Amino acid sequence: MPRTHRSTRPRRTMSFGTDVRPRGRRSRFGSVLRGLGALVVIVVVLAGIPLALTALAGNPLPDSVPSWGDVTSALTEPDDGSLFLQALLWIAWLGWISFAVGLLVEIPAALSGRKAPRLPALRFQQRAAAGLLAAVAAAFVVGPVGAATAAEPVQPPAPQRAPVTTAQAPAQAAPEVATTEAAPATEAATPAMAQRTHTVQRGESLWRIAEQELGDGMRWPEIAELNYGTPQPGGGSLDNTHWIAPGWQLRLPPEPATTAAPVADTGATTHVVAEGDTLWDIAEQRLGDGARYPELVDASRDTVQPDGRRLTDPDLIRPGWTITVPGTAGAPPVVADPISREPAQPPAEEPAAPPPAEEPAQPPAAEEPAQPPAAEAPAEEQPPAEAPVQPPAAQQPDDAELGDAATQAVGDDTVVPLRTAAGVGALMAAGVLGVLAVRRRTQQRRREPGERIAMPAGALAGTEQELRGVADPMSVELVDLALRGLAADCARRGVALPPLRIGRLTSEQFELYLTDTAQLPEPFVATEQGHVWLLPAAAVRALDAAELREVPAPYPSLVTVGHGPEDGHLLLDLERLGTLAVVGDHDRSREVMAALAVELATSPWADDLQVTLVGTCPELADGLDTGRIRHLPTVGSLLGELTTRARNDRVALAESGAYSLDDARARGVAVAAWTPEIVLLGTPLGPDQEEQLAELVESLPRVAVAAVTSGHGAVGQWSLELTDGDPDAAVLQPVGVEVQPQRLDRHQYAQILELLGITSQPAVRPWVDTSGHPVGEPDPGAVGPGLLEPLDTLEADFDRLAAPDAVDDRAATDDEVPEPEPAHHVVPGEGPTVLLLGPVEVEDAEGPVEQSKYRQLTEIAAFIALNPGRGHSALDDAMWPGSRVTQNTRNTAISKLRRWFGRDIHGDDYLPRVDSGYRFHPGVSTDWDQWRALVGDDPTLAGTPQLVAALELVRGQPFTGVNPRRYGWAEHLKQEMISAIVDAAHELAQRAIRGGDAHLARKASTIGLQVEPGMELLWRDRIRAEHLAGNRAGIDDAIARMTAISADLGDDLEDATVRLIAKLTSPAPQRSGIPERL
């Protein structure tokens, strides 16, 4: 089904050093203080110490070269203390010289961005010098973000050249990503506006210039964007290192006082943006319809805002900006700008006619009707008329639409959160839910017919729904397939993997920041810097998922450390860094360490890795139980164990001819060295242990070992410095990027462990199988009459099976099988039907519906149908978890849903206007309602025709084909539906086998396996059906598929399955008599 997008353009790539705006002055002030302190230390050590030594003891060099006799005399004659003092002076001079040498070695490395040569004898001096230089560079070279240091910082692309995507008009079926270059920021300035300049003075930085000229140092990126690539006196120009030279002429943003653009006299008004506003909200409030937000863009695009910027991106407005609201007399002319905004909607789509008579406008007083305290009522308001689009006859979204990764619009009026309130990001949430899904499949496999798996309730159910609201499995797949595709290309070309250090994932694209330039294959898109590449989210559809899943994971230690601008996930390759220090108080450091451990343990782009927790989070080893985590109470002999492993891995690399781990992975050699071990140290290390750890991770060639430390000091160059007093602020050093750290506080940590622990609880609510007729076993190796059909053969209809005479006559001939009392057969309502037993759809809704609202309105319909009488708060929590929902947003959606569902023959709305909660007219039904009327709570008591009719309703697993972030409220019901369908399929298959109907047994078991492929009970039914049909190939195929699924789930076959397979595959003994039945 075609769809529209509010925005599908990738953001510009994040410049580590250019495009990251500090959140406040506190961290910047701290960086300046640290830089000043480091500079003072350098000056004192380099100049103060020699001056002091010279003043105290004079020139250390003698006036003449001493003779050998003078030396022996000084060493053999009694010492009056002068020789001792002279020795101390020489020791002091040698110490000064060693530090000066270390500093001189580090300075060129810091300026060039290369790693300094290693001087083993001056290891401590060299590390101290590198740290001091990094602090000075971070404070004085590039303002708030660290410049090139000895840690080989990532070089960013020029921000004005970042690829963006042209937006598609709403009428188009699907977006086509087309990269283009954004115009330089200077082109946005109007000619009539005077251009201000600033002549750079000695000692100035972009931050200092922004403070002097713009009043806020945080606005330095605005100056940078205006001056990238502009030729300067002397032949240089501003680039991503942000070095500026005295005499340069820098262009400045216009003065705030001159930025007020006149508003055309067309009856237009203005709106000052408040915190939390979106253009959609403003359009709803001022124009009556959020879909008219492009009019606000058109009317406001030429207005220069108080901070010197313009509205170019509909998704990005800032508090204090002025938005022009067009009046009814006319609208400002539309200026084509395909790069920065979506095309305006045609005027024909804005109706001039009043609403139809059957949808009278509600008076303002009726927005929130008065209600008794005991009942929560849905407050409604009739929205303005619109020109909706009639949906096509087949309303089911196609596969490409359902698989559209992060580019897929949510189709509602709210912003989808990318992390929970406690700081859990979309990738970690997806990993946890992936583990939960596998465990629930195991629960389903192990339960008995009639039982129901244990599910969370209360606060735990709320925790799961919150995780589902932020989880983004499509983004996880994007990262996974992108990295594996890159590895596959490197293997084909015979080159090493590119040295990835940092990844950044936004809703539009995945960005790779390499340590060196490299050539990446399509569909990666190059930027002006050869070491920064991006992959548009829509490009994941061009990747062959089935083929790439067989490619070994190239970067298994990539993990989210926090979230930055545009809610982008910032990922670090811990292998590449070697060490990462989490610097801050103990409790907050533990929260960050817990988040790192959970994501590493559940990451899908790590085929295998070992996470070793030392003195922290001991519960995770058993709680997650993914086979990746171990816990040690103390460091003990761990460092010695890792040193031995590193030595063996280096030997393996050398013997294979690989010069690095990246080379080995790309060439498929030294496989034993691939699996990384990430050590998370919750206890402090001693000086000797720190030195041993540094030697372990810094020696070349690098091996797959990394460590994350916590406390108040860094072992290596990389650290995540937690900001005091703000739990959601941190700075990633040495690049100086401010992030919101991903963390698991104690409450959410316990909730996740308890949520996973429920999957180990026994099944509940068993019902008794009243049939009492076990299915017999066949002769070992016997083959029945021929009815050869492949396992996956499934006709489109059930007409023959649903005929009561054909089924009942066969059952009546078997005296052992009494027919149960049939359940009451339900007749679908005369109104719309919400289909849930497969892809979620709505049938027989005769009203119009906007294509962009189809998914959202379908989910609202499903919620109301399954939860009649619930009020607006429950609807808000279900539909927009974690988001701010206005009354107008909800009322508009309900009004559109009412118009879509229409009215019955008596003129009554199928979605009535009521005061006691949302509920549908009795004529609206769901296929789940029909199922329950046919089968009831116990399928063993339902008649065979009713079971056949119920299975006709099943089109796949319930709630398939929906956005992974949607329908979190329905997970409990989804598991109930799966259990009910599996039990009914098993019951019908048993009856068919007892009646000798192999075709019916095959049909029933196949439908059940579509819903839960891992259910061994149904596989045994399928195998018995193939045996009854005499289909040896079908038996072998079923056994092979069942075994593969069990292996994927990491579970052993059940004893009953093993015995059945043994009977069917062992040679038939020579004996007479009645064959043993299966």
TrEMBL record:
Residues 307-316 have a biased composition (Basic and acidic residues). Gene3D superfamilies: LysM domain (3.10.350.10), Tetratricopeptide repeat domain (1.25.40.10), Winged helix-like DNA-binding domain superfamily/Winged helix DNA-binding domain (1.10.10.10). The keyword Acetylation does not apply. This is LysM peptidoglycan-binding domain-containing protein. PANTHER family: PHAGE-LIKE ELEMENT PBSX PROTEIN XKDP, POTASSIUM BINDING PROTEIN KBP. The keyword Zinc does not apply. Residues 161-170, 364-384 have a biased composition (Low complexity). The chain crosses the membrane at residues 31-57, 83-107, 128-151. Residues 1-22, 150-170, 293-402, 809-831 are annotated as: Disordered. Keywords: Membrane, Transmembrane, Transmembrane helix. Residues 196-252, 269-325 form the LysM domain.
